[in-house]
Each structure stands twice: as structure tokens, then as C-alpha cells.
From TrEMBL:
NCBIfam families: EboA_domain. This is Sugar phosphate isomerase. It comes from Streptomyces aurantiacus. InterPro entries: EboA_dom (IPR047715). Residues 209-241 are annotated as: Disordered.
């Protein structure tokens, strides 16, 4: 799903072309009963979008998607349902909070298509506090690239390195990492800590470091203290402290 991204500014009032393509692909992959279920669920979401109040019928369909469409197609169905319902930031936060890990990932994938501003950042920040690599990978997509401030974005990159999430998952990485001396310093600290512990330095670290334009040289910081942990809540192993 991480290739399903439109240009910034696409709003929920119209269906982004990439979601139209997603719907077409999903229809071609689903059997007749699953297609009928999806069509009905999308109609329900469009007719009665739930932004406030008790749980809506379409939110129940989010939970059903795995059983109705199969695990391999459930995420695509959930993203389409969220868009059809025109879910706003509070609704997305509720679905995320109440959902399973798979449902939470669908919310993260849907963010770029539904929320134009930074209102949904708490959802991204929560995902980055987990050690679920699938959530972390979804959290560093286009929405984070557009709205995370420099401090939190740098920590998100380090979170990927800590947890083994490939940096290919980080949207807009070359632009945001370019000429970022502070990110280079943090990467150098992390590399120093890994070497001091006789542990390998991830190849992805050198990829990101090259993008910053700064050489991989010691920064003068005390490597024994370990890398700067994202928001002070993660240790070198990427776990919450």
C-alpha cells in the first residue's frame, strides 16, 4: 500500500486517482460475494459518514473487512471505506484507537488522502511509539513527511533504524534529509554506539547519512551515552523506556 500516494493537497471531496485505481484492482481480485459486500459497505459509508456520536455501520465494516475480503485485501478495503466515509481527524483517531493493528495501519495509510493539515499527527506519533514495525513503516509515509516537524521527523528516521524498518518506507527522505546537520549528528552518535557495542551499523544509516551531505566522522559526543532516543522515550533497541 505504500505506493498508493497522490500529490499533496488532494482532499476527500473527490476520489484521488490512486484510490480509483486501488478500487479497480481490488474489484478484479475479489470474488463475487466479496465485491458485493464491498460495494454495499462503500455505499453505507458514503450515505452515512460517521464523524461524531455512536459507532457507525461503516466502522463495523472496517472490522469485518478481513473476514469478508480476506487478509490480503482487507487493508485496501479499509482505506477505501475510510475515504468513502470522509473520515475527519477525530474519526480517524477513534477508529485507530479502537482498532486492531491491521485496522490501525489502514488508518495510517489513509491519512494522506483525508487530512490536509496536521490535525492527525497524534495518530502518527502514537504509531511511532510502538515496536510494531508494520505500524512504524506506515507512520513514516507522506502524511508524516508533510507535517512532522524536523525534531520529530529525525526521531522517526532513527526509530526506523532502531527497529529494522527499511528507510525506503520514509516518504520524501532525500528532500527532508538533505543538508540536515543535526540528523547527521544523531546518525553519527548511533553509529558510534553500535561500534562501541561491537554491533554492525545498518547499511541504511549510511544511506541516510549520505543524503545529509555530511561525512561519517565522529561528532565529539560521548558515544557511551548511546544515540539520542526519539522524544526521550526509546532506548537503542527501539523499545520504550
Amino acid at each position: 500500500m505504500n505506493d498508493l500516494h497522490d500529490a499533496p493537497g488532494t482532499g476527500p471531496a473527490q476520489t484521488p486517482p490512486v484510490l480509483t485505481l486501488l478500487h479497480t484492482r481490488l474489484n478484479s481480485a475479489l470474488g463475487g460475494a466479496a465485491r458485493a459486500w464491498l460495494d454495499q459497505a462503500l455505499d453505507e459509508a458514503a450515505a452515512a459518514p460517521g464523524t461524531h456520536g455512536p459507532i457507525s455501520v461503516w466502522e463495523l465494516r472496517i472490522a469485518e473487512a478481513g473476514r469478508r475480503c480476506g487478509p490480503e485485501h482487507a487493508e485496501a478495503a479499509r482505506v477505501l471505506l475510510l475515504h468513502a466515509a470522509r473520515a475527519d481527524a477525530p474519526t480517524l483517531a477513534r477508529v485507530y484507537r479502537q482498532g486492531t493493528a491491521d485496522e490501525r495501519r489502514a488508518v495510517l495509510e489513509a491519512l494522506p488522502h483525508l487530512v490536509a493539515g496536521p490535525e492527525a499527527l497524534p495518530v502518527v506519533e502514537d504509531a511511532l511509539r510502538t515496536n510494531d514495525t508494520r505500524l512504524v513503516a506506515a507512520a513514516v509515509g507522506p502524511y508524516a513527511a508533510r507535517h512532522l516537524d524536523a525534531h520529530n521527523w529525525r526521531h522517526a528516521v532513527l526509530k526506523c533504524l532502531f527497529t529494522g524498518v527499511p528507510v525506503d518506507a520514509v516518504a520524501d527522505l532525500p528532500r527532508r534529509a538533505g543538508a540536515d546537520a543535526e540528523l547527521a549528528r544523531m546518525l553519527g552518535d548511533y553509529a558510534d554506539e553500535r561500534r562501541a557495542a561491537d554491533r554492525p551499523v545498518p547499511d541504511d544509516l549510511y544511506r541516510v547519512l549520505a543524503l545529509t551531505g555530511h561525512p561519517a566522522t565522529p561528532t565529539g559526543t560521548d558515544a557511551s551515552k548511546g544515540p539520542t532516543a526519539p522524544d526521550g522515550t526509546y532506548g537503542p533497541d527501539g523499545k520504550e523506556s
